[in-house]
Amino acid sequence: MLQVRDINVYYGAIHALKGVSLDVQQGEIVTLIGANGAGKSTILKALSGLLKPSSGSIEFLGQPIQGKVAQEIVKLGMSHCPEGRRVFANMSVEENLELGAYLRKDKEIKADMEKVYQRFPRLLERRKQLSGTLSGGEQQMLAMGRALMARPKLLLLDEPSMGLAPLLVKEIFSIIEEINRQGTTVLLVEQNAHMALSIAHRAYVIETGKLVLSGSAKELAASDEIQKAYLGG
Following CA atoms 184, 2, 164, 176 in sequence, which dihedral angle do they give, to the nearest 10 degrees? Predict the structure, then answer.
């Protein structure tokens, strides 16, 4: 589904991604783990068209997408749920969800909104409420719901558990699993490596802009190196 080959990204003189290559197969949950500042979010931004790699190639569903703008990539079926939620604070929950479907021309947008409300009942209760007044957990649900309104084949999730209470973290991760079971492929960036590896099929480890390890999530979770570095082992 997604093939990334040898991409390099710079922030000015800073070499943020150094020859990154990775693959995501249809139906998988793949997670990227690593320390803060390692380049995890930069990878997602490069995939979704928010950053332009200086070299390398990105193919999504057999099409080269490097150099395409973000809305073109959304049209192809990739949705990005960014770090920090980035909801439109002065717009209602419902208006935020409608914006998620802004490129769609079909007649099933209302039906998909109902599906979002079924998945996130708290959003239904607050559908007319301004998004800026929601709790952190509710804003995360809204950001995920808004990304799903684009009907993505591949959902990019950036730090969905950030700042959330442990019970909410469990809820968000069970929802990610459900989204995946229902047919959406997921590429997950997550600081909580233990939770990420518990739901992922495969994982990549990134350090200072380079991918240094990859394998099945179970293998990496059992690795002494990963346990010491990321799982508190």
Answer: 20
Rounded to whole angstroms, the Cα distance separating 3 from 102 reads 27
CATH number of the domain bearing residue 18: 3.40.50.300
Is the residue at 107 inside a domain?
no
User: Tokens representing 19?
Assistant: 């020859």
pLDDT in tens, the chain (233 residues): 999 999 999 999 999 999 999 999 999 999 999 888 889 999 999 999 999 999 999 999 999 998 899 999 999 999 998 886 688 888 999 999 998 888 888 888 999 999 999 988 889 999 999 988 998 888 888 998 999 999 999 999 998 888 777 888 888 899 899 999 999 999 999 888 889 999 999 999 999 999 999 999 999 988 888 887 777 65
As for how many domains the chain has, the answer is 1
